[in-house]
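Ticket #4471: structure output looks truncated?

Reporter: J.K.
Steps to reproduce: submitted the chain below (296 residues) through the standard prediction queue, then opened the result file.
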Amino acid sequence: MLDFHAPTIEDKPWVDSLLRLSSYQGCEYCFGNILIWSSSYQVRIARHDDFFVAKSFSEKPEYCFPAGKGNLKTIIEVLLKDARENGHKFSMFAVTENQKAILDELFEGRFVFEPYRNGFDYIYKSADLIELAGKKYHSKRNHIASFMKSYDWSLEEIHAGNIKICCDLTRMWAQNNQESVEDGSELQAIKTAVEHYFDLGFRGALLYAGGNPVAFTMGEELRPDTFCTHFEKADSRVRGAYPMINREFAQRFLSNYTYINREDDIGSEGLRKAKLSYYPAILLQKNRVFLREEHD
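Returned output as attached by the reporter:
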């Protein structure tokens, strides 16, 4: 029996302890990410023995691949039973190729896998984002050079005295990017992130140009070698603001990480182009998973 509940900040210690046991590299395995998006995706969480389980209670419920330690076949059977008892088809989301191989081995063809390109994570070597070396990053360096030449600029870490500026920048970004704001879910996630920023152990920075804030970024440690960037917003009218905060934040605060996971592109053509332009070291493939006998 799984006792699902909405995640709260009080869940962080036990969830973190189980996520660390698996050390997955997908962005779904950050507690902060789970919490800030839980309202938008109706995510509920549960503990079963030494496994962490998350489930989206949307129109078509889905489970996340469990994290923790123990008998994986047993916990997957628990999820299958939960789906049957609640009268819906079984489905999992964000299942990586490694997790797919585990399911194939344990259940011998019982599942159907469908790659979900919109959910692939873009994972970069931190050194690449810091150095921007070589011909392929020429345009990034040009934009940064233009920014540095055009503005008296500064970068400061997010702290209690400036964190509300992130909300102001988010509202400005939303006004300037109405075509990118569909249902307000991202705005709500950022508001939750700001509200719980320090308790979640987030780290971020604000970029100023001419004394005015023009960009912010924030995220959290995913595992000891990987930082996960949840949000990066900038005034697109300020040339170089995006590549500038990307490089400066990585250079000043993330050099001790091997990788930076900048999450997926949600199917946005513009976002996909931008993320590919930084040449990810890993494009983490993810799949949706269905029971073969239930799949249409």
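Triage note (M.O.): checked the attachment and the full token line is present. The mean pLDDT is 95.
Status: closed, working as intended.
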